[in-house]
Amino acid sequence: MSKVEEFEDLRPLLFSIAYRILGSVSEAEDAVQETWLRFDASATRPESVKAFLSATVTRISIDVLRSARVRREAYVGPWFPEPLLDDPYQDPGRAAELADSVSMAALLLLERLSPLERAVFVLREVFAFGFGDIATAVGRSEAACRQLLVRARRHMDAGRPRFEADRKERRELATRFFDALAGGDVDALRSLLAADVQLVGDGGGKAPQLARAVVGADKVARLLGGVFPWLFQVDVSFEPHEVNGQPGAIFRDRGGRILHTLVLDVLDGRIQTIRSVINPDKLGHLGPVADAWAVDREVRQARGPQA
């Protein structure tokens, strides 16, 4: 097998590691590309190509995350990971761990960890790497890695997100939600929401966004039922799609360009959190991006003086 073939065979794993450490599709893709360049430039073949490439992409991702955290501290409004529609790495034996670890809720929880804790947690808890390979990847002793994992687990267990176990039930609830959204049915929306549901948006100051989270079933239902029918009147459309392993949808303007994504956290038969990513910088990997400000102006014109 050639170097290129070996690398391409492992590319899905490398991207999945990098994305969970970074929470960014574009940065993860860059980390994978840099890993290839280093692999291609190496004069000797490593004993384990998988171990070498995994360690390389992990170290690159840690370095990128350290600088990214400084930028995120100055971010305008809530910061969410870049939406991921399909995780390229598949492992039937760890399907549940992979799906939960890529959710928006889990990635936001990982943001609380140090870069080293995050890398160790991802490699061990999500991908089941041995401590020897983890130690090589992060440049620490196995004992130190075990301590990093203990601290990471403590942070994660304190706020670990829980989701509806039955994926079919989640999809059915999401279908009812989007049907109610399309019809502007406030009562139907309210019936699907948890009492303390939160609606939060990430615009990064580059698109229309909520000034703050909207909390409570009645407030969220009224906002959704009051806004989305007007979006549909200016030919905004949506397609249901899993986003970060959870039920969600992709919204497009009349030209088919990506306007935003919406993802739902479901627990105990109710929607607990609704997250929207509308920052255009986080949507480019999904396709051509809409001008959200232009859509907002259209909606305001359609609504007239009442807007």
TrEMBL record:
The keyword Transcription regulation is annotated on this UniProt entry: yes
Domain RNA polymerase sigma-70 region: 7-69
Keyword Transcription among record annotations: yes
Pfam families listed in its UniProt record: Sigma70_r2, Sigma70_r4_2, SnoaL_2
Segments forming domain RNA polymerase sigma factor 70 region 4 type: 105-156
Highest taxon of source: Bacteria
Alphabetical UniProt keywords: Sigma factor, Transcription, Transcription regulation
Coiled-coil stretches: none
Residue ranges constituting the SnoaL-like domain according to the UniProt record: 175-243
Subunit field text: Interacts transiently with the RNA polymerase catalytic core formed by RpoA, RpoB, RpoC and RpoZ (2 alpha, 1 beta, 1 beta' and 1 omega subunit) to form the RNA polymerase holoenzyme that can initiate transcription.
Family label: Belongs to the sigma-70 factor family. ECF subfamily.
Protein name in UniProt: RNA polymerase sigma-70 factor
